[in-house]
Amino acid sequence: MYTGTIAEDFNRKYNYDGQLGLKVTEEFIELRVWAPEADSVCVNIYESGDISDNAIRTTIPMDYQEKGVFLARIDKSYMGRFYTYMLNRNGEATETCDPYAKAVGVNGDRAAIIDLKATNPKGWEDDKNPNASLPANERVIYEAHVRDLTKSDSSNVKHKGLFKGVTESAAEDSKIGLNYIADLGVTHIQFLPIYDFGSVDEKNPGFNWGYDPKNYFAVEGSYSTDPYNPIARITELKEMIMACHNKGLSVVMDVVLNHVFDANSFCFNKIVPGYFSRIDSDGIYSNGSFCGNDTASERYMVSKYIVDNILYWAKEYHIDGFRFDLVGLIDVDTINELIEKVHAIRPDVIFHGEGWELPTVMTSVKPLATQMNADKTPELAYFDDVIRNLLRGDNFHPTEKGYCNGAKSMKSLLKTCLMGKRYYTSNCNQLINYVSCHDDYTLYDKFKVAGADLADDILYKQCMLAAGICFISKGTPLILNGEEFARTKVDEEGNIVSNSYKSSDFVNAIDWNELKDAKKQEMIKYYKALIAFKRNYANVKFEGFKDGIDDESLLINGSLGNKRIVILINPENKEVKYTLSEGTYNTIVCSDSKLVSKQYEGSVTVPSVGFMVLERK
């Protein structure tokens, strides 16, 4: 097992730049695997993709080529079969899946031999990113989970919890799912992992967020109508992506390159023991991810693997953006290389991630893609925990309050956040502003935990105030599916769940019946107005701040060309009155639905825990 650094002579001898995995040519099927220390490698061909059927159809020896790469050319009559690699190393035999497997059988234990052209749905060649030219400050990202969207009976779709269920929600008569999300006006839908992950049994699927990579190039089978059919899951995902695009939604894919489900059984590590993961001199896996292992992206062939993977999803699946889980564990050089190579073929693709600093054990010294290294990754945006913690309270202290629910002396930091400036970057295009995502409490639940005695009316106001500030701040806003109607995650016993990564569908599935609630409809209309404001007033210039009669309230004067804009923020539990400059002002956004259509001259009274945007006629 590899520990520490890899010797330079190993790199010179084995670093390889060519294609790996399966390639279908006019005459043959080619299989290439990087196994630099194997004495020999064979391909086992199976009729079944299920490892419970262990009958091998045939075994084909591979020929050593160069740089640690073995090659087998096999007849195209094997199309539709499944394969594994069998390695002999120092007298020990190891069987494993292909790390570059583009298609797999049930539970991802065997790779499938298919022609990817056979997976394309009708019209796929004409499928394009609907927001290809949209600048960062006009994007609005909506985070969702495939199973969440349609698993509830309230979804009224046939294929609940599946790719096809999401696609069904784009039907003309649907009021949920993609139709509902597109109607909000957001530009991008960001899906939690849709690659093949190991935490769900595809034969009997339950719920999991999916942050447990097993096969990075393959599609998750638990979202398919037939996880035994390697083509079905690919086609059904492509159909879902097309449905998103047809609704005007660009698709962002959540990728987890910082760790794998199980480092010991991960196919890359089985072929080249320990190479893919960071392991210290005592043979212990680094655990900065807090998931049991960290990816050694600083190693040449791991970096190549990551770059190849992102390129593949951008090309084969028309993915329009990538959200990197714990990107602070991946080195700067790898991130910049993959962005450069993707942008060479698709300059419209966007990139962002979680740039937290984490205690990883590097195998060689390289800067990592953390917030503090934002200047070294100019095309990568970062999730901003500063504005999140400011508005709702510290993420790791549930009862701690933020600006929107009673904390004081925070206005100075608020002004900085509004301007899109942070301690780690002054480039607002590198900011993903958010107050809730899949991690931790939903926005409503965070305010509920911090203010357990408060009525829903006040909690809703706090949610809307937080969203308003998030949307007017310079940067790209991201919202969690259901944030706009005060989504809560409560278990069967009535307890709020902060981390629902493997909770039941009862906790996680979206209850679309909530849309029937009048107050929630008011919140949804408010979010629509915020989204429209962000997209239409993205370039508004903040010209000055004016303090209100209370310490924490704020008036912001702004302009967009000849338009005069006034933004009013009041976190206080009482009304705040402001004097307006000369003219008549229309209300274009207001957290109080009764004031949405009002006009003002001379002064305006902002409701308690309220948010307003006015435009001078």
What do these coordinates show?
- With 617 residues, the protein is of the alpha/beta class.
- Helices cover 23% and strands 23% of the residues.
- It has 14 helices and 25 strands.
- The chain has helices at residues 8-14, 146-150, 163-168, 177-184, 230-246, 267-271, 300-316, 332-345, 385-392, 411-418, 443-450, 456-472, 505-508, 518-536, and strands at 21-24, 29-34, 40-46, 56-61, 63-64, 69-74, 82-89, 92-96, 111-112, 141-144, 188-191, 195-197, 213-219, 250-255, 321-324, 350-353, 381-384, 431-434, 476-480, 541-547, 554-560, 563-570, 576-590, 599-606, 610-616.
- The strands form 5 sheets. Strands 10-11-14-15-16-17-18-19 form an 8-stranded parallel beta barrel. The protein has a 6-stranded antiparallel β-sheet with strand order 20-21-22-25-23-24. Strands 3, 4, 7, 8 and 9 form a 5-stranded antiparallel β-sheet that branches.
- Strand 5 and strand 6 form a beta hairpin.
- The longest helix is centred in the C-terminal third of the chain and has 19 residues, at 518-536.
- The mean pLDDT is 96.
The major β-sheet equals: 8 strands, parallel, barrel
Strand order of the largest sheet: 10-11-14-15-16-17-18-19
SS-based structural class?
A: alpha/beta
Poorly predicted runs are none
Distance between the termini: 71 Å
Radius of gyration using CA atoms only: 26 Å
Q: What is the number of E strands?
A: 25
Strand content: 15-25%
> What sort of overall outline do the alpha carbons produce when their principal axes are compared?
elongated
Helicity level, as a percent range? 10-25%
Tally of helical segments: 14
* Nearest-integer average pLDDT: 96
